[in-house]
Specification:
104 residues, alpha+beta, 38% helix, elongated
Length: 104
């Protein structure tokens, strides 16, 4: 499973944080590794340089082998919270898809 990170102009990701993000994703949905060919992570700040609640956005797009890609998005007060919520949503969707594939 390849993990690709994308950010808006308001965020620069250092190698340590990139490794942390990849680790969080692998820990959260690693068991679906055979189902997913690539995960794209899009991090953005909805308000730019202004302050605001839940203005950090994480969009996760999973490219599923033999299926249409799925995407989830989540907002949080910081990027870690946004990412954690998005991983949880994606995990739920992947469990549904994996369950349907096993049923067939």
């Amino acid at each position: 499973m390849t993990i690709q990170l994308n950010t808006d102009k308001n965020l620069t990701i250092h190698q340590e944080y990139e490794d942390k993000i990849k680790g969080m994703i692998t820990d959260g949905i690693g068991r679906f590794d055979d189902l997913i060919s690539r995960i794209e992570v899009h991090l953005s700040d909805e308000n730019g340089s202004k302050e605001g609640l839940d203005d950090k956005r994480c969009l996760l797009e999973a490219k599923i082998v033999g299926k249409e890609p799925i995407a989830v998005t989540n907002l949080g007060n910081n990027y870690d919270l946004a990412l954690t919520g998005a991983i949880s949503k994606l995990k739920s969707k992947l469990e549904t898809i994996a369950g349907k594939l096993k049923a067939h």
